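Sequence in, structure out.
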Amino acid sequence: MSFFFEVLIGGLLSGLMYALVALGFVLIYKASGVFNFAQGAMVFFAALTCVSLVNKFGLSLWLAIPLTVLVMVVLALATERLVLRPLVNQPEITLFMATIGLTFFIEGLAQLMWGSTVQRLDIGIEDVPLASLLDRFNIAVSQFDLISAAICGALVAALAVFFSATKIGRALRAVADDHQAALAVGIPLQHIWAIVWAVAGFVALVAGLLWGARNGVQFALTFVALKALPVLILGGFTSIPGAIVGGLIIGASEKLAEVYLGPMVGGGIEGWFPYVLALLFLLVRPEGLFGEKIIRRI
């Protein structure tokens, strides 16, 4: 039983890191109604910029992080000005295709600026078991997973409060409901989009630092965003709490499936099980656990 809880806890902690990546998708979707395919590229760009400032320019991590935040804000503002603003009131598929093009541009820009070699990132958190839990409950829990989950949880909670209890948050909800109506009452659509993209860039930086410290800063970080897709399907594309719940479900289910079902199918189930779970969930509740059910009258 202790082994089961060890796997479950590890999955839940990883799920919070998935939720952090999914949060970037949710923020932009709520503001613009478009699925930002470039979120994974933003995670890669942020992590590669930060680690390059440390390794190539000799800056301390605590100086490189605010500089990278500044870079991500500039990238967000440029994206809003050059990509989103010219496409206001265009069909959603047009915006989605624009983010696909943005994905390849950001990936190429990151590697053009900083190179494509794998770089090691040390953020000062050791990936070692917590001895206290190991001795008391015979459960091995990684210190890195626990601290990373705490960081993700705190950031998600702070953003949830920010967007639900502030003037900007209310403006965001208005923009998400109806762009034209928001413009009619004086809400500056471009400013809201710029703020949301800047916040999404900051979220991408935190996710990139955590995943980069675990797996190395490399192009494969862009594929971490793909794990956010099942999270969004389960939780709903417009819900911050849904991103948390969806991340926990996906994280726990993939770890348990790998351990208990993997030997039956030859292993490797962790890579595709979340997508199968999301597909089955779509058949039952396509709007997600916390998504709004769309009713169209004819």
